[in-house]
Amino acid sequence: MALIKDRKVTPDGWQLLERGTDSVAPRISETGDVIVDLKLWRESRERLIARSGRAGVWLDGGADPAEIASDLQHLALVAVRFESFTDGRGYSIGRLLRERYGWRGEMRAIGDVQRDQLYYLARCGFDAFALREGADAEAALKGFSDFTEAYQAAADQPSPLFRRREMSSRVL
To answer: Considering its fold, how many domains does the chain have in total?
Structure first.
């Protein structure tokens, strides 16, 4: 799986701990950086905080980011899983994490993440993207430049275009 972080293809040092088909929780090693689902975070929070590796939590599209808001200081990464390309709930989770809860760490999109989403995900505050299996990460990088200007305010540009134009006309 290819990882794009800060608009560069990069190796991924994180291990995504997923439950098996039997829903049994995966084994948590004492070292290394791990991303766990929200349920495992709740079950093993103290152990994950105390271990020597960093911890990250992933939220599914239907999760409420308020559930981890009080734990953000213990996390090095928050991931949002996109079950399908057409599920837009993760975009809202990203905006809430950045704007309401002040998350400044890595925010990663995982799951069915495709090139056509990268520009919009970045606008919502995502800075890392684990592309779906088989995706060409170098080709996907072009997705960030699909558009040259955005009208609306967003996590990546807090001022809407009309305000930016207004400010630039005052400078002249």
So the answer is: 1
Which domain covers residue 65, as residue numbers?
Answer: 3-171
The enclosing domain of 125 has a CATH number of 3.40.50
Give how far Cα 39 sits from Cα of 7, 23, 24, 58, 134, Å: 30, 11, 11, 10, 28
pLDDT tens digits for range 148-158: 887 887 888 88
Which strands make up the sheet holding 55-60, listed edge to edge? 8-9, 3-5, 128-130, 106-111, 77-82, 55-60, 33-37, 14-16
pLDDT of residue 3: 96
pTM of the entire predicted model: 0.88
Which regions of the chain are under pLDDT 50?
A: none
